[in-house]
Amino acid sequence: MIKCLPIAILMFLTTGLMAGNPDFRTPSKTSRFFIEITTQGTFVSFIDLFSKGKYSASFIEINSDKTRNYLISNSSIFSLTLKGDTFSFANFRCGIIDIKDNVIAYLDKAFLQKIFFIFHRIGFRPRITDAMRTTQNQTKYKRRGWSNMEISPHLVGLAVDLVIYSASDREIIKKLSEKLGLKFLYHGGGGNRHIHLQDERHWSDIQKSDIRLVSDSLNTFLKSLNGREEIQEIDSLKQGQNFIYNFITEKFSGIFFNIEDIYGEKAAEINTGLFEPGNYNIRINLDYLEKGFYKVNVFESGKFTVQKYFVKY
Length: 313
Fold this sequence. Notes:
The protein has helices at residues 5-17, 109-121, 135-143, 167-180, 200-205, 211-225; strands spanning 35-37, 42-51, 54-64, 70-72, 77-82, 85-91, 98-99, 106-108, 127-130, 159-163, 182-187, 194-199, 231-233, 242-249, 253-261, 266-275, 278-285, 292-300, 303-312. By secondary structure, it is an alpha+beta fold. The chain has a domain at 5-16 and 76-228: Muramoyl-pentapeptide Carboxypeptidase, domain 2, CATH 3.30.1380. It has an eight-stranded antiparallel β-sheet, covered by helices on one side. Strands 7-9-10-12-11 form a five-stranded mixed β-sheet. Strand 11 and strand 12 (194-199) form a beta hairpin. It is globular and about 60 Å long. It starts with a helix and ends with a strand.
């Protein structure tokens, strides 16, 4: 049974990636944003689209006031659920962050939001030298004394290692890590001195017995992509029909939009990332919705905030 499980997982992943998208126009290289946040910062937003209530496609949008903007499409995002634990990953080799060539550039989606939040605060200076690992690499690290763990958060994209940063950068990273629930380590010797960050909240919640199985399945799947990952630079949001949401937060918050049609069928779910205390304006591009009447349920840090309505013409 155990030997067959990786195949079953791969079949699930492949089926999800090949799902049709009849009610939404799939973005092309000239696409506009799904989302624009007209406030200084770098934001990583997750967009899940649905057709008649059934999942059809996923995208991740990276937008910033200081860098280029990117859309990560379906072929570079995948997830699986095993024994109640859900693992969701995205390719982040998009040109904004300096990444060592041999790094497997996939991270847990929620962890990726936190990493981009930190990198924006320190000017995108550090270089990522390690992210997701294979079980073979983790075994090699332990054998050579580079790690004392057989089961590491690196195996499921919940850890990164950073080099090239100043002493002040290091202190900022440490303080932000505490606020974001990340474990901060400064270790290694000589030329291997580095910062290690891991999503301690998520890592402590998941079962460890199947981590190697999950990692092997994921890395096998990555090999099957054979370079088909799609990350594209996108244009700014221009004139068109948008849903606008303004809000003020007094604490670190995440904003989540649940969009449903008039029949109560799910049309889209949008997680817009992390916000520091301040005043924000979010524009959601409605071009990807069919014509009709919609309601939007807005949640702040997991708590329902308000319900709004709009008509897509």
